[in-house]
Design goal:
This protein has one domain (about 5-155). The chain has helices at about 5-30, 55-70, 75-95, 105-120, 130-155. It starts with a helix and ends in a 12-residue tail after the last helix. By secondary structure, it is mostly helical. The protein has five helices and no strands.
Length: about 170
């Protein structure tokens, strides 16, 4: 039987994965979760590694499930999920720094990886630099603006979380 800490970790990761997946599927209905111009509101959750390490696998699994359930190409499922994992690990590593820095790794990892997926896998017309711009703007909206709003909302209840931020 798992001990309470391991059980809590698994439950937190599963809940984060589920929330990420539901948010992505919801926003996909508006055609905003993928493509050259995307604002994946579920990416706001990428600030959660500042509050719990369970967010790292939770975000990765949530992205993997979301990409699979929304019919993404196999290489998108793999490399898009890896971009989210890299961002989550980066956010976790910056958890004890300035709260705004926590949003930077997912923005950068997606800006560097997703444009190649759009260009090479989906063969969407446009340059890599254009996709870096469009993906970057979407990530800034999701990770920085919405993510920091979520961060602010979680601060008053951080004592209920296992790894308080700030």
């Amino acid at each position: 039987m798992l001990n309470n800490k391991k059980t809590l970790f698994i439950v937190e990761a599963a809940m984060i994965a589920a929330i990420y997946t539901v948010l992505t599927i919801f926003i996909a209905a508006f055609d905003l979760a993928s493509g050259a111009i995307q604002v994946r509101v579920s990416e706001a959750l990428t600030i959660l590694p500042a509050f719990t390490p369970a967010a790292v696998p939770g975000l990765f699994i949530g992205c993997l499930l979301s990409n699979t359930l929304t019919g993404a190409a196999l290489l998108d499922i793999v490399f898009g999920s890896i971009a989210t994992l890299i961002g989550a690990i980066g956010s976790y590593s910056l958890r004890n720094t300035n709260r705004f820095l926590v949003s930077v790794p997912p923005i950068v990892s997606n800006m560097l990886i997703v444009p190649f997926i759009l260009s090479k896998v989906y063969q969407i017309p446009g340059s890599i630099h254009f996709f870096m711009l469009t993906v970057g703007v979407g990530e800034i909206i999701s990770c920085l603006i919405l993510g920091q709003m979520l961060y602010s909302a979680l601060l008053p209840v951080r004592h209920f979380l296992r790894f308080p931020a700030e």
